Structures are given as C-alpha cells and as structure tokens.
Amino acid sequence: MFDDSVMECKNSGMIVEPPARPIDLETVPEDGFEFIHRARLEEDLLHSNEPSKMKELELYAKEKAQEFSRFANSLKMKKTILQQQFPMNSEDFYPKKDEVEWCQFLLGSKLCAKIYGTDDTGVEGHLPLLSCILYYSQDEIQMLIKYIHQWFVKIGMEKTMCMWLYSLLACLEKPVDVNFQQVLEEIQIDYKRHLKYEDEYDIQVYFILSILFQNFCAH
C-alpha cells in the first residue's frame, strides 16, 4: 500500500508519526515515515557490532538495492493508478528560478543556509511525496539529482537528501542518455571517494551508492 502522508524528522525538530505497520530491516519503505523508522533501525545495527560493521553494511546495502529495484518497477508500472490516488499538489509546483530556490524547497532554509550562506528563515523543506514526485518530468528528475549531488559535495549527505535521491532514482526512467549516464558515474566516483577519505561507515552514502551500482552504473 502506498502512502502520501507527510512526515518529519526528529533531528530537524519535526514530528515523526508512529508506523502504521511493524517496521524492521527487511521492510521496503512505502512512504517517508517508514523510511525514517527503518533508517533509525539501520543506524542502531551499525553501532551495535563494531568489528563486523563493514560486512553487515555490504550485505545490507546489496539487499536493499535489490528491494529498491522492485519498488522502482512497481512505481513505474502503477504510475497511472497512483496518480489517480494521489493527485498533483499544485501548491508545490510554483516556479523556482534556480538551484537555491530548489534547495530551500527540498531541504528547507536551514540546510540551504548551510550550503549557500542564505538566511535561515525557518522554512521547512518538503518530503518526496507521491503527490509531488509522480508529476516531475524526466528532465526535472535529472536536474534535481544533479542539484542534490552538488549539495552533497558541499556539506555531505543529509537524511532529507538521501530520501529525495531514493525517490527520484525510483522515478528515473532507464536507460538514461549518455550524458546523464556520465553524471551518474561521476556521482558514484564521488561517493566512493567520500567513503574512502571521509566516513567509510556513512550508511546513507553507501545505500545510494549501492542503488547506483546495482541499477544504473556500468560495472
């Protein structure tokens, strides 16, 4: 069952509603709430057994990348039905003139200020709800993936960025053209560099890297 409910993150001072069903490490998230609840379980797992952390991370990421493939295929196959269930929220489709306005829309003014040095006006970011992501064109999806990568290079991976990447990649149609394939390969290289030199146990980066490796990038 797909859910378009609004959810918010503990670390940003927002409220996360209790899950409507039991959530464990095998759960494929069907909405933003479930993504956050499972992410918390993942973090607990990685900190519970330090010596075997990397092995656990590798096995987990490979399995979840396969689950992503099933989710993305289901999303594409049911797109018309889902659009009937979750109509476009026109309020979210106001014109955004540049990557700064997109940053504030997706991530909120706090992270936007961290990335671009703008004022933190207290504006909250948006979550990748079906009433939004199902209506982006492929050009918009590719543009947003590139923007999020630019933000990652500046400040590292934030949970909201990971959520948006997961959703955008699920909506990205394959095969992509040669130019965007190169973009995905460059993202993969930067993620590997981050894991090697910055934080080898960054579960969010490892997760998206595994999705790219298993579903989009040549290997």
Keywords:
219 residues, mainly alpha, single chain
> What is the makeup of the main sheet?
none
Helix tally?
Answer: 10
**Amount of beta strand:** under 5%
In the predicted model, the low-confidence regions spanning at least 5 consecutive residues are 5-14
Mean pLDDT, rounded to whole units? 84
Number of strands: 0
Structural class estimated from helices and strands: mainly alpha
Which of globular, elongated, flat, extended, rod-shaped describes the shape? globular
Please bin the fraction of helical residues.
55-70%
Distance between the termini: 33 Å
Multimer state: single chain
Order of SSEs: HHHHHHHHHH
Alpha-carbon Rg, integer = 17 Å
In brief:
This is Gem-associated protein 2. The protein has helices at residues 32-48, 53-77, 79-85, 99-107, 109-116, 130-133, 138-155, 159-171, 178-197, 203-215.
Could you explain how this protein is built, in words?
Helix 8 (159-171) packs parallel to helix 10. The chain starts with 31 loop residues before the first helix and ends with a helix. It contains ten helices and no strands. The radius of gyration is 17 Å and the shape is globular. Mean pLDDT is 84; it is low at 5-14. The chain has 219 residues and is an all-alpha fold. The chain has helices at residues 32-48, 53-77, 79-85, 99-107, 109-116, 130-133, 138-155, 159-171, 178-197, 203-215. The longest helix has 25 residues, at 53-77. Pfam families: SIP1 (PF04938). This is Gem-associated protein 2. One of its GO terms (biological process) is spliceosomal snRNP assembly.
